[in-house]
Design a protein that fits this description.
This is Ionotropic glutamate receptor L-glutamate and glycine-binding domain-containing protein. It is a multi-pass membrane protein. InterPro entries: Glu/Gly-bd (IPR019594). It is found in: Membrane. By secondary structure, this protein is mainly α. It has one domain. Helix content is about 55%, strand content about 5%. The chain is built from two helices and two strands; from the N terminus they run H-E-E-H. It has a two-stranded antiparallel ribbon. Strand 1 and strand 2 form a beta hairpin. The protein is flat, with a radius of gyration of 15 Å.
Length: about 60
C-alpha cells in the first residue's frame, strides 16, 4: 500500500481504487475449466481487458 501511494503521488497521473475481490480468495488455478479464481482471476479477466482497451484507445488517439 505504501509503495502504491508513493508511486501515485510522485507520478501524479493515475487514479486508482482498492477493492476486495468478490470471492475473497488470493487466486487458485482451477484445472476443470482452465481458469483462476480470486485476485489472479480478476486480474486476468477484468484488468487485462481494461488494459487492452486503454492500449487500443491510446493507439487510436495517436493515429
Amino acid at each position: 500500500m505504501d509503495l502504491t501511494e508513493k508511486v501515485m503521488t510522485e507520478m501524479n497521473r493515475f487514479e486508482y481504487y482498492i477493492k476486495e475481490v468478490e470471492d475473497r480468495q488470493y487466486g487458485s488455478y482451477i484445472p476443470q475449466n482452465n481458469s483462476w479464481n480470486g485476485m489472479v482471476g480478476e486480474l486476468l479477466t477484468k484488468v487485462g481487458f481494461r488494459l487492452d482497451v486503454i492500449f487500443l484507445t491510446h493507439l487510436c488517439l495517436a493515429s
